[in-house]
């Protein structure tokens, strides 16, 4: 069964965006995955198609109304067991492990928030999993949804030309990825490390692992600590 993504948004024209190109776009053409959008505003009941209201208790901005968003979610997920994600800066950080879990399923439903946020009651009532792509705030959930789908689609079976290429990337083994080189052998006085042209595959793998550890220690020591905690646990 092909992976099926449904995105609930006020701006369906933002999709598929960059996912319509390159490997993801070709995979969509082959039917390996599909993407449909749901316009949240279609479920408003007043003549102005209002989807938001002022926050209870006062404050700046507007909040997406629970009744309207719930109707949109229900329309996209009737008798549907796909995970329901809400892109939110307060959500749990997206990890490669979670991406692989999502990619192993039948698909995903993604809700793109706007304004100040989403009424908490619909988050609870519809079992939305809040997901963050980083410690910063965007103007809406659409760019974040595209990033989540990009991460998922690229590791679906058969999407990458060489499935093994996905096994040696940053975060796959708890480490950042090792440095890469290609021809020419010498460029601006800088040489490709001799070990990489030695033909000794065992030594090359050892070097790559050492470099991955070095870079991770320098740039993301938290990943090493996390791996150590899991090992000791």
The count of strands amounts to 10
Structural class: alpha/beta
N to C succession of SSEs: EHEEEHEHEEHEHEEHH
**Largest sheet data:** 5 strands, parallel
Mean pLDDT: 93
Description:
By secondary structure, the chain is of the alpha/beta class. Helices cover 33% and strands 19% of the residues. The chain is built from seven helices and ten strands. The strands form three sheets. It has a five-stranded parallel beta sheet with strand order 2-1-6-5-8, with helices on both faces.
Question: Notable features of this structure?
Answer:
alpha/beta, 233 residues, single chain, elongated, 3-stranded mixed β-sheet, 10 strands
In a nutshell, what does this entry contain?
This protein has 233 residues and is α/β, with parallel strands linked by helices. Helix content is 33%, strand content 19%.
Strand and helix map with partners:
Layout: E1 3-9, H1 22-29, E2 33-39, E3 52-53, E4 63-64, H2 66-76, E5 84-93, H3 96-103, E6 107-112, E7 117-118, H4 120-125, E8 129-132, H5 142-153, E9 186-187, E10 190-191, H6 201-219, H7 221-232
Helix pairs in contact: 3-5, 6-7
């Amino acid at each position: 069964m092909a992976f099926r993504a449904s995105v609930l948004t006020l701006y369906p024209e933002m999709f598929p965006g960059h996912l319509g190109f390159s490997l993801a776009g070709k995979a969509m053409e082959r039917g390996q995955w599909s993407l449909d959008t749901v316009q949240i505003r279609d479920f408003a009941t007043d003549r102005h198609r209002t989807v938001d209201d002022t926050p209870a208790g006062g404050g700046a901005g507007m909040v997406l109304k629970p009744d309207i968003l719930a109707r949109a979610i229900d329309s996209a997920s009737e008798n549907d067991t796909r995970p329901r994600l809400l892109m939110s800066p307060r959500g749990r950080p997206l990890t490669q492990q979670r991406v692989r879990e999502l990619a192993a399923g039948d698909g995903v439903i993604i809700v793109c928030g706007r304004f100040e946020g989403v009424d908490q009651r619909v988050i609870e009532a519809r079992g939305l999993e809040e997901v963050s792509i980083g410690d910063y705030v965007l103007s809406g959930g659409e760019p974040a949804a595209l990033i989540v789908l990009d991460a998922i689609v690229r590791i679906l079976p058969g999407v990458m030309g060489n499935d093994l290429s996905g096994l040696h990337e940053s975060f796959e083994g708890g480490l950042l990825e090792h440095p890469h080189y290609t021809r020419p052998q010498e460029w601006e006085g800088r040489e490709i490390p001799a070990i990489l042209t030695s033909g000794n595959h065992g030594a090359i793998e050892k070097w790559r692992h050492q470099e991955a550890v070095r870079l991770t220690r320098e740039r993301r020591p938290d990943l090493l600590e996390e791996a150590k905690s899991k090992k000791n646990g």
